[in-house]
Write a structure and sequence with these properties.
- InterPro entries: AAA+_ATPase (IPR003593), ABC_transporter-like_ATP-bd (IPR003439), ABC_transporter-like_CS (IPR017871), ABC_transpr_LolD-like (IPR015854), MacB-like_ATP-bd (IPR017911), P-loop_NTPase (IPR027417).
- Keywords: ATP-binding, Nucleotide-binding, Transport.
- Pfam families: ABC_tran.
- This is ABC transporter ATP-binding protein.
- The structure is a single chain.
- The protein is α/β, with parallel strands linked by helices.
- The chain has one domain: Rossmann fold (3-Layer(aba) Sandwich), CATH 3.40.50.300.
- It has helices at about 50-55, 80-90, 105-115, 125-135, 150-160, 180-195, 205-210, and strands at about 5-15, 20-35, 35-40, 65-70, 70, 90, 170, 200-205, 215-220.
- The strands form 2 sheets. Strands 6-7-8-3-9 form a 5-stranded parallel beta sheet, with helices on both faces. It has a 4-stranded antiparallel beta sheet with strand order 2-1-4-5, with helices on one face.
- Helix 3 (about 105-115) packs across helix 4, helix 3 (about 105-115) packs parallel to helix 5 (about 150-160) and helix 4 (about 125-135) crosses helix 5 (about 150-160).
- The longest helix is centred in the C-terminal third of the chain and has 16 residues, at about 180-195.
- It is globular, with a radius of gyration of 17 Å.
């Protein structure tokens, strides 16, 4: 496959389980190409979130290798991973990762504060409004996160993941707090991003979302 953005080969991972450890991923392989939407499905506990975290450089595999645009992620140098992630990946976690006491605006522009070069501050508000419109969210930028509904938080977190137009969007259960209509909007957004060359990797239980993927990879509970 050409234009590969992400590759993972032979990934193993165990996690703490009481006094022992439980294996959640075993010899797992994954690829994501530019313009492709790939879904990860499987029962709870099968390692979907763990796999997304590993390819985003948020967790370290016990074995295996992950490549970003052909370059291996060096998990032995943790400080090297955040800059790579910030440059190439937009990440939407299940817990959203929003700052609850801050405004929607402050949450949205957080990625811009770490961007090099940093966009002019006079452009930040327009960028924030553009991304809110892109995800179909109509909220005041001054509104505090703790006053938003679950679905609003989810879409705001997605807007933040898109603030720097990443080459790769990784989303963990992105429709879990959305109704049917907003899920349809999400599907259209992912198709639009893929059409622009973005690679979209998502974990989901949602059959509607899965049906919109170019490929679906099923993980089994070990």
């Amino acid at each position: 496959m050409t234009n590969l953005l992400l590759e993972a080969y032979g990934v193993d991972k165990t996690v703490p389980d009481g006094t022992a450890r439980r294996q959640v991923l075993k010899d797992c392989n994954l690829t994501l190409a530019a313009g492709e939407i790939v879904g990860i499905m499987g029962p709870s506990g099968c390692g979907k979130t763990t796999l997304l975290d590993i390819v985003a450089g948020l967790q370290v595999p016990d074995r295996g290798q992950v490549y970003l645009r052909g370059t291996p992620l060096d998990y032995t140098k943790p400080a090297s991973l955040p800059p790579i992630r910030r440059e190439h990946i937009g990440f939407l976690s299940q817990g959203y990762g929003l700052l609850p006491d801050e405004s929607a605006y402050e949450n949205l522009v957080l990625p811009l504060r770490f961007q090099k070069p940093t966009p002019p501050r006079k452009e930040w508000r327009a960028l924030a409004e553009e991304k809110l419109e892109q995800v179909g969210l109509d909220v005041a930028l001054e509104k505090k996160i703790n006053r938003l509904s679950g679905g609003e938080k989810q879409r705001l977190a997605l807007a933040r993941a898109l603030m720097r137009n990443p080459q790769i969007l990784i989303a963990d259960e992105p429709s879990s707090a959305l109704d049917w209509g907003r899920t349809q909007h999400l599907i259209e957004l992912f198709a639009q991003l893929a059409g622009q060359g973005t690679g979209v990797l998502l974990a989901t239980h949602d059959p509607l979302l899965a049906a919109a993927c170019h490929r679906v990879q099923n993980l089994e509970t070990l």
